[in-house]
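Input for the complex:
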Amino acid sequence: MMKDCTEAEVMIALCARLLEDQKTAFIGFGMPQVAAILAQRIQAPQLVQVFEFGAIGPTPLTPFVRNTMGGPSNCYRSLAWTSMNQIFAQAQVGLVDYGVLGATQIDIYGNVNSTLLGEDYQRPRKRFPGSGGANEVASFCWKTIIIMMHEKRRFVPRVDFVTSPGYLDGTPEARERAGLPAGTGPWRIVTSKAVFGFDEDSKKMTLLGVLGGLTPEQVLAEMELKPLVAARVETLKPPTEQELRILREEIDPARTIIGRTAKAA
Amino acid sequence: METLHEGAGELRFTDPDAVRAWMRDHKRREFVDKTLSDADAVRRFVADGDYVSFDFSSFTRGPLALIREIIRQGRRDLWYCAKFTLMESTLLAAAGAVSRIDVGFMGLGDTLNRAVEEGKIKVTEWTNGTLTLRHMAGGMGVPFLPTRALLGTDTLKYSGAKVVRDPFGGKPIALVPAVTPDVGLIHVHQADVYGNARCFGPGVSPLETAAASRKVIISTDEIIDHEDIRKDPSKTTIPYYMVDAVVYAPFGAYPGGLPGVYEMDFEHFAEYNTLERQGQLKGYLDKYVYSVGSHLEMLEKRVGLARLNDLRRRATVKEGYR
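Predicted:
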């Protein structure tokens, strides 16, 4: 692990690199916001962010203000301010290319849990705040990117609760058979150690790249599930000086998001 | 229509004709001054056991003054719609005011999560989008609306949605039932005394919440002349006949911000976060709710003019919010 940058900085940089210019991206609270701003400052100045509060195309003011996702600094100079029903309708009709989400727990088919741990819905062992808009984002956006801390217990063969849909049971066209929009689904998982995709046929999570300095074995050892491994695993560049400078000096000097590291296991 | 799946979540479904009759009989078409104090509005329009829906967020344009008044008056057994709630659902739970929550996203800190783990609050699973869609259905007077969200998930299993075969296209589609809250709480930038109201900036569902709710309390940072409404009608978010009470509440979103008018109070949220983590929300409620008689008294005695002025000064981004 690099000594001089945090796990959050790694995840944010890896995620930002995936976002293309002149595309639309549904951006969730927290790390996804910072990743989208970073992408706008580097390779994607015309990345059009959309928020569940209905802002379309904001150019957020920095330093980034953590709490006010729907406030004036984060929604600065948007193209339009709409509402939650309208913005989810626009995603449902197919206008939003990427969705960027956080997750508590994920399984091999990319099903996401942000609701609870345990067996009993009414008396869970651990309850979390719930879907928020994540279920809509994972259902409607063409390509969903999930950004999460690389901790063993978060990567499980089966999630305790499917909050937001991945490839469900992994059978062919499982999403389409459930009624979800065709051709959508999880596309990448970005962690503090690696990037995963999904195998076209089996829909299983597949290791695509590991952070420079790590081996695939080291990454797989930190997962309860066993993903597939691509024939050629890419070596991912750690955050560049430019990325770190923008993150630390322009976007988040207070380090409210980029300062985060995983809890000790 | 063939039902393919149905969620096990509990619903409070109302026949659309019952809602129409309510709207005919209770929503006043005549222009009457609906201004009330926060205490009177909550006394008249919020009852124990009500289903309560609020709009936006505790960080931004949320009706926090009204939430505190509901707590102050000791309402119990509310069924709360958490379409995007952070501090307010937590405060209501800490005060023992809610017994059920429809979850889109709930809580700021772990208090509410623990209450669910301990079985003190019953939850039904939804999403932010499906809860706002349920308000749209309620406000349209239809029994349900279709959506391609929820499908294939446990969220659906523990919601009150159903999956049917689309009678036109044949694919599975989720239907979410209309919600017609007993009470809708909405904070706005400006309103006239009749309840014509303006919200500026992005939002969750102010219009849908007002349209769907049987009793609507608007709190407003500014009361404006009725003539101003007529001079610029494209700015009207909510028409007066949906509104039952207008509460003049400057800084009514406090400690959240009102876009273009005042910023959220970060120090207040830091204090809240500390107390929440220590399990001391009773102390928070004593300080900001129970020991003061009204929103204005809280602003005066617990916040103070210097802090309020500073929050106004920090709201430097004005464009788009007028």
